[in-house]
Amino acid sequence: MKHLFTLIMLTLATMILADTSPERPPIGTRLQSDEILFKASIDAIDDIVIYNGKLCIEHVSRNKPQNITIDGKTWEPTWEANTSSNYTRFNPKLVSLKDIVAKVTLIKGRGNAVIQEQPSKENKYRLIIRLTDGGSGADELEIKISLNPKGK
After folding, report:
1. How would DSSP label each residue in the chain?
2. Is residue 116 predicted with pLDDT exceeding 70?
3. Which of 42, 59, 78, 151 lies deepest, with the highest CB count within 10 Å?
4. Which pLDDT score is estimated for 8?
């Protein structure tokens, strides 16, 4: 009986420690909504551009964003003029935004977040979100980007 209990406990521990859950399909291929959490210190205006499985920032005015996290992961982009390098570490992987309608929600911050362009054939399925901090100096903005299949 003691050996059976030990065997059961070891089996349970192995199941808990092992990642036996099925891999999630890429974002943009599922029927339910997906979310991206974005947080950064914003000083004036910056645009988030999401396309082809990537996210980059187009800096518009004042100081470039600092202390950036995406889905809880720190990101320190390199910059070429006012365009950041691409962020691609989405889990699950981010795929095309074709047939997606986005929604943005401001979670924290004194500024605002507005969708400038929804993904469309005309803009090569780019999502553009404008972050604006109207106060003096930079402020931390946290947003939730919801990616919803059209018609849902």
Report:
1. -HHHHHHHHHHHHHHHHS--SPPPPPBTSSSS-EEEEEEEEE-SEEEEEEETTEEEEEEEESSPPEEEEETTEEE---EETTEEPPB---SSPB---TTEEEEEEEEE-SSEEEEEE---TTTTS-EEEEEE--SSS-EEEEEEEEEEETT-
2. yes
3. 42
4. 53
